[in-house]
Amino acid sequence: MPPESDSVLAACGAQAAAAGLPWYSNPYLRQDHAPRATGESVCEWARKHDAWQRGFEGYGCTPPPRD
Asked: Which of 9, 25, 37, 66 could form a disulfide with 21 if both were Cys (CB 3.0 to 4.6 A apart)?
């Protein structure tokens, strides 16, 4: 499983929620993770952002999505 797979990112989001962090602790909201800084496509950035957010929002409700 690649280090930035959807399931890994969702697990990180769920861990942040479990720790009581706010939704804006999503690391993909930081400027140094934005496409302009990393050179990746907006689609790839959005995939990572959304996977983390799904894990955060789904914490305690459903298991994180599987790849």
From this structure: 25
